[in-house]
Amino acid sequence: MPLDTGGLSEVETSAADGPTLQSGADVGQALKAMREARGLTLDQLAEATRVRASYLEALEEMQLEKLPSRPFVVGYIRAYAQALGADADEAVHRFKAEEPVLDEPLPEPVGVRDERDPRLAAIVAGAVVIIGAIVAWNVVQRIMTETAPAPPTASETVAQKALANTTAGPVSLGAPLPAPVESTTPPPYVTPGLDKAVNAEGQPLVPPQAAQPAPEMNLAGTFTPKGQIYGAPAAQGAVILQALKPAFLVIKGADGSVYFARQLAEGEAYRAANLAGLTVDVSEPEAFQVFSGGQSRGVLPQPLTPVAKLVAPAPTPAPPPAAAPKPAAPATASAQPAPAAAKPQAPAAKPAPKPPQ
């Protein structure tokens, strides 16, 4: 295929007299001298050869490190010479003579080094240790089981005496023991208002149950410390809750925040501070005895009780004694006697009735 000369005429690409491919110190200088003799710029030559102007400039200066590989450089020299109307083979021959190919050994191919992951050895060693420990433990357990002494047995004499004391016949057993009380079982839930609801006939939905008598409890009349006392100091609280058995006690504030929450042992107590809005929250009211001012107020009335209701009311003052009546003043001599009472007058006599005529 003919080389595109970019519109250069025969007059521009040929010169009878001027520099040749043998001019200059190297083929690059010769090509540059021929270009300048024809009055061409690098941009014009780059457009004609389709090679970058920077590559043509590096070729003229023989700066091969700025150019691509050697096959591309040979192609650039050939196109440069053809664009100038010179012998392309001669230009390539001079270039190869000035820049011969050195017979350097090819570098060895670079591969991946055969390295082992150091973590793999640690993992294998750990697995071997674990397996060895398991095997050793099984062996030791087997040895201990085989060498364990046999359980002691009674001698024949003792066994015969025990058999001789046994009598044939039915065996009497005692009364069965009651089932243990499950203290953690919550009380049965009762729907509010269900006991007051009635059916279509006017009968209550829930039959009334006989009231169960409250269990008798021997409560102390005054507070006696039997364990640790939590809560406020003695000068800052008058209400004391003492546990009659192990139970959980929660004290909440007016905003619902928890001031105290603890499982109290039997005999331990909590002294409530003189704060407004405190509430006692328990699951077993009968497990706590209330003391106000050191005097017993009985057990808690309900699971959720305000502390203010547990304070003993202040004694009402006795009314003042009535004033004694003043004695009457004694009569004096100058006092006038009281007027005599008027005697009643006799009623007037009625006239006699007239006889009939």
Automatic annotation (TrEMBL):
Positions with biased composition (Low complexity): 329-349
One Gene Ontology MF term: DNA binding
Region Disordered: start-end pairs: 1-23, 310-357
Name of the featured protein: Helix-turn-helix domain-containing protein
PANTHER family noted in UniProt: CYTOSKELETON PROTEIN RODZ, PTHR34475
Segments crossing the lipid bilayer: 120-140
Record domain HTH cro/C1-type: where: 31-56
Keyword Transcription regulation belongs to the record: no
UniProt-listed CDD domains: HTH_XRE (cd00093)
SMART domains assigned: HTH_XRE
Keyword Transmembrane set for record: yes
Pfam families according to UniProt: HTH_25
Superkingdom, taxonomy of origin: Bacteria
Keywords of the record: Membrane, Transmembrane, Transmembrane helix
InterPro entries hit by this protein: Bact_Cytoskel_RodZ, Cro/C1-type_HTH, Lambda_DNA-bd_dom_sf
Bias (Pro residues) ranges: 314-328
